Amino acid sequence: MKTTVQKLLTIICVVLLTGSVNAQVLDEFPRTPDGKPDFSGIWQAMTNATL
Asked: How would you write 1-51 as a 3-class SS string?
């Protein structure tokens, strides 16, 4: 019984993790109307420098 539950939980975890990894992969990057990559979004500098 214990090994059956462990196997079931392992299968569920693998299925859930595989689905989340596949959801993050982009086939194509977003493009602007003129065909250039769209780099708009939130950009944050991760440094200690003061501006």
From this structure: CHHHHHHHHHHHHHHHHHHHHHHHCCCCCCECCCCCECCCCCCCCCCCCCC
Contact 31, 37 (CB under 8 A): yes
Whether the CB-CB separation of 29 and 37 falls below 8 Å is answered with yes
Supply 17's token pair: 């993790």
Q: pLDDT tens digits for the chain (51 residues)?
A: 778 888 888 888 877 776 655 455 566 778 889 988 888 876 777 788 766
